[in-house]
Design brief:
Blueprint lengths: L2 H14 L5 E5 L6 E6 L2 E11 L2 E8 L8
Antiparallel strand pairs: 1-2, 2-3, 3-4
């Protein structure tokens, strides 16, 4: 993902979750994925998928069972 794509997706997620604390950070050595953070907390990953000329972004959340208590 390039810097422009990351900014667009980050802006969308901030609006979607109504939170300016949402931040996308480049993952070391991975081109098609960024890390999703809210402040200092790691929430998951965002992958870029370009298939058959269409581009989409897949968000994967990590929810630990200890966070559910």
């Amino acid at each position: 993902m390039n810097a422009e794509e990351i900014k667009k997706v980050e802006t969308y997620l901030k609006k979607l979750f109504n939170s300016e604390a949402i931040e996308l950070r480049r993952a070391p050595k991975v081109q098609d994925m960024v890390e999703l953070h809210k402040g200092d907390e790691f929430l998951g990953t965002v992958y870029r998928d370009a298939e058959d000329g269409d581009v989409s972004y897949q968000v994967n959340f990590a929810i630990l069972d200890i966070d559910l208590d």
